[in-house]
Specification:
14-stranded antiparallel β-barrel; 18 strands; 370 residues; mainly beta; 49% strand; Porin
């Protein structure tokens, strides 16, 4: 059985590794709305005063069932904050803080570490973000953001098996003493390059000040460009280019008046070199309870559930539970592409943790500056 598994292992390891080498593609999160600074730098400080989050993704475990330690995992964390001077004290507990309605800055930092496959291909990205928000009216705002940092990419060639090492006379079907594929000769197994990005968003909010009315309607539209400068790198002997990534996205919350239900649709389109992703769907949010308007002892809570479709790739089932300032989200990708033959339809598990201050149940006012 080992000699049968070997060519398959070689094929999967080499193809997946080299696909990341030749056509480098960024990591992507199914709960992209919970990872704002990897979606658009202009989102830094555009919602609440303080926002912090962590995200973990584990995918394609079935593909590497022969060695469960070599799955594709990503861990990310982000923090962003709005200028404190843009917040003023309000009159009651529900509106404990209120936006001042002035122009101002937001800044943030995000980091993610990705580890992929048998070759332990790694991507470590650390970025700082600065955004400036301009109020264009009582209900609308434009934000422009810039992001800069470093990216480290690495791979362990010694952990990959190559066609040139296949040896049918060996008991295991391969011989590590044989030379590896000459394509890796002269390449580096680790490098660090600068990373730059920019983005623009437009946000509009209107209607109900308190959640119990639930007739709010808000939306955010944005576009961002990552890897804006054409830096190059090389795992192989020749030089490869890190493609720019263009992202166009939209998110909205649409309350159904005098009910506890709201629709939360979102869409993301991104293109990076020859790779393109279209991701769209919606959550349905149900308000379990509201914050106490005056005492604040009763904490608000809601639960959301829904699904998204990643074009020609996967269906994603997702859920989010929010309590006071905290939120926990879970999603699972069900693979629909040709990879499902070896993945058994199992794509990826993703878990997010989020903290917001003020709580979205306290600061539920829809329009800016009122």
């Amino acid at each position: 059985m080992k000699t049968i598994k070997l060519p398959f292992a070689i094929l999967i390891s080499a193809c997946l590794a080299l696909s990341g080498v030749v056509n480098a593609q960024d990591i992507h999160f199914s709960q992209f709305t919970q990872s704002p600074l990897t979606l658009n730098p202009a989102l830094a400080g555009t919602s609440v005063w303080i926002r912090a989050g962590m995200i973990f993704r584990d995918q394609w475990r079935a593909v590497h069932s022969m060695n469960s330690n070599n799955t594709f995992t990503t861990l990310g964390a982000s923090f962003d904050i709005k200028s404190k001077r843009r917040w003023i004290k309000a009159k009651n507990q529900t509106e404990r803080y209120r936006q001042s309605g002035d122009n101002g800055f937001g800044w943030g930092v995000n980091i993610y570490n990705d580890r992929a496959g048998d070759g332990h291909m790694g991507t470590l990205n650390v970025n700082g973000t600065l955004a400036y928000q301009i109020m264009t009216g009582e209900k609308s705002m434009i934000a422009l953001g810039f992001q800069g940092g470093i990216m480290q990419r690495s791979i362990d060639f010694s952990k990959l098996y190559w066609g040139t090492q296949y040896d049918p006379t060996s008991s295991t079907g391969y011989n590590v003493a044989l030379p590896a594929d000459k394509a890796i000769a002269g390449g580096d197994d680790s490098f660090i390059i600068p990373d730059l990005g920019t983005g623009l968003t437009y946000t509009y909010k209107k209607n109900e000040r308190y959640m119990r009315g639930n007739d709010q309607m808000d939306f955010t539209l944005g576009a961002a460009l990552f890897h804006a400068a054409p830096f190059k790198y090389s795992f192989l002997g020749s030089t490869e280019k890190l493609y720019q990534r263009l992202v166009i996205h939209g998110m909205s919350t649409i309350g159904i008046k005098n009910t506890s239900i709201a629709l939360v649709p979102a869409v993301m389109i991104q293109k990076q070199g020859p790779n393109q992703e279209i991701f769209a769907g919606s959550m349905v949010r149900y308000m379990l309870k509201e914050d106490s308007k005056y005492t604040g002892y009763v904490k608000g809570a809601s639960i959301s559930a829904g699904g998204y479709y990643r074009n020609k790739d996967a269906f994603v089932a997702a859920a989010l539970f929010e309590f006071a300032s905290y939120g926990i989200g879970v999603s699972y990708d069900f693979n629909l592409s040709g990879l499902r033959t070896v993945s058994s339809g199992r794509g990826g598990l993703e878990i997010t943790l989020r903290f917001l201050n003020p709580s979205p149940f306290l600061f539920s006012q829809a329009s800016f500056g009122k």
